[in-house]
Amino acid sequence: MTDYALEALKRKRADMTDEIARCHARLQQLSTDLEHVDATIRLFAPDFVQESILPKVFMPPKSWSKRGEMSRAVLSILRVAKGPLSTREIAAMIVQQRGLEHDKGILDVMTRRVGHVLRDKRDKGLVRSVEDTGLWLQWEVVR
Predict the structure, then answer these.
(1) What is d(CA 94, CA 100) in angstroms, rounded to the nearest whole number?
(2) How far is CA 107 from CA 11, 59, 87, 131, 141, in A?
(3) Rounded distance, CA 103 to CA 105, Å?
(4) 3-class SS string, the chain
(5) What pTM did the predictor assign?
(6) N- to C-terminal Cα distance for the chain?
(7) Residues 6+ apart with CB under 8 A from 126
(8) Gap between the Cα atoms of 89 and 139, Å rounded
(9) How far apart are CA 126 and CA 71, in angstroms?
């Protein structure tokens, strides 16, 4: 029995090291490409400071929240929850479910979207907010 587990773990490790190697190769290629772009910018504007260009912030595409998808995700999370959850906790769960990078920008966007859904569902009587002294409202499904 342990032979199967060991073989599966070996395959998993091989897959992960392959993925790491591909990520390193991709990072190296991106670094090289960035150096070329910077050199080209210097040709057109020798005085320009490349560091003044801020990195682009990733925003989830609207297609990830097709009509009703966010509402269904929020309500399904609240239905299986053991107790009330904060808006931020629900947003973090949705970020995790969708496999998005868990950074502050994405979490802030999702928190706003979840908050909008929760307020809408509260107006319709499907969820209620529980008074709490914390920063975020606690939410639960009306049973």
Answers:
(1) 9
(2) 33, 10, 11, 23, 22
(3) 6
(4) CHHHHHHHHHHHHHHHHHHHHHHHHHHHHHHHHHHHHHHHHHHHCCCCCHHHCCCCCCCCCHHHHCCCHHHHHHHHHHHHCCCCEEHHHHHHHHHHHCCCCCCHHHHHHHHHHHHHHHHHHHHCCCEEEECCCCCCCEEEECC
(5) 0.54
(6) 46
(7) 75, 141, 142
(8) 10
(9) 11
Give the pLDDT confidence of 99-117 residue by residue, as tens digits: 777 778 888 888 888 989 9
| The pLDDT value given to residue 134 | 66
**pLDDT band at residue 63 using 50, 70 and 90 as cut-offs:** low
Give the position of tokens 């995700």. Answer: 73
Q: How far is residue 113's CA from residue 128's CA, in Å, rounded to a whole number?
A: 17
Per DSSP, what are the bridge partners of residue 85? Answer: 139
